[in-house]
Write a structure and sequence with these properties.
The protein has 297 residues and is an alpha/beta fold. It has one domain: TIM Barrel (Alpha-Beta Barrel), CATH 3.20.20. The chain has 11 helices and 10 strands. The strands form 2 sheets. The protein has an 8-stranded parallel sheet. Strands 8-9 form a two-stranded antiparallel ribbon. Helix 4 runs parallel beside helix 5 and helix 10 packs across helix 11.
């Protein structure tokens, strides 16, 4: 049966940019959500010093929480081979961080393709990404961490959208790597932002899904998908997008979770929510718990 994790989409800038909230603050807030894990992001950590990381781990353990997922964003589509090699080493360091927190299996470290830069062909991009992921896999296997490639929209602090945003490119990469230490982190809302049917995306990759992001995404009233496409290539996450309460938006969670249950999925589901307050996030947790009990019995 899946277990629930939480990701503070609502506090990203507070923790990563404004520094008005610490990771310890988020742990305290999240301890009342009724989830078993917290998904982390590189910008949440004030240091990579083992003493600091140990304090973070101890604080989480004191609340009965683990770190089963790490929302890392490698950029493997840079034209410079030296930059790509550096990105591989950063991905390996991210895997080390997941191993340090020692969550129960299956524990995952997200891997992306990179930014969809003008001038990078699809053939070159796919080849570079595959080479980089394959270079990371022995390191991940040695540490018992699964690399989970997400059908992603865009990292909060990137300029360009995800190179493998669309299913045709995502499948080329994700289904072309055969390893028990590599799988898919499925995000239904990101499929919508790509202009694709979340259920069709799930059907295409369902046998490789090892973790999931749960959200309900929407575009603010008065704005359109066409407008989103025009502003995608600006730094950061589009301001007209919002993460809404899970179960109240565009995603058919009965169909999604029913499909995963039929396959015996038992990975982590990480909630991305709370843009309108923690009460909303609690309702999303309750919704997901009810649906998990319904579909997994």
């Amino acid at each position: 049966m899946p277990r629930l994790s939480a990701f503070p989409k609502c506090y990203m800038d507070d923790i990563c940019v404004k520094k008005t909230m610490t990771l310890f603050d988020w742990i305290e807030v999240a301890s009342g959500l009724g989830v078993a894990g917290l998904e982390m992001y590189p910008g949440f950590f004030a240091s990579r010093d083992p003493e600091y990381l140990g304090r973070v781990r101890d604080r989480m353990r004191a609340h009965g929480l683990v770190m089963p997922m790490y929302c890392y964003s490698p950029d493997f589509t840079h034209p410079d081979p030296a930059v790509r090699r550096a990105e591989v080493e950063k991905q390996k360091a991210a895997v080390d961080l997941v191993a340090f927190f020692d969550a129960p299996a299956p524990r995952t470290c997200r891997v992306l393709s990179g930014q969809r830069r003008p001038g990078v062909s699809q053939d070159d991009g796919v080849r570079w990404v595959r080479e980089c992921i394959l270079a990371c896999l022995p390191h991940a296997e040695a540490r018992g961490v699964i690399l989970a490639m997400e059908n992603h929209y865009k990292d909060n602090y990137w300029q360009y959208p995800e190179f493998a945003q669309h299913l045709a490119v995502f499948r080329q990469i994700a289904l072309g790597i055969d390893s028990p230490w590599f799988g898919v982190n499925y995000d239904p809302s990101n499929a919508v932002l790509a202009g694709e049917d979340p259920l069709e995306v799930l059907e295409a990759v369902k046998h490789r899904v090892v973790s999931m992001h749960a959200s309900d995404r929407y575009i603010l009233p008065g704005h359109t998908v066409a407008e989103l496409r025009r502003i995608e290539d600006s730094v950061g996450y589009a301001a007209i997008l919002r993460h809404g309460e899970v179960g109240q938006g565009m995603n058919d969670y009965d169909a999604i979770l029913g499909t995963l249950a039929s396959l015996g999925f038992d990975g982590w589901i990480s909630l991305e929510d709370g843009m309108d307050g923690m009460d909303e996030m609690r309702r999303s947790v309750d919704f997901l718990k009810e649906k998990i009990a319904q579909h997994w019995g």
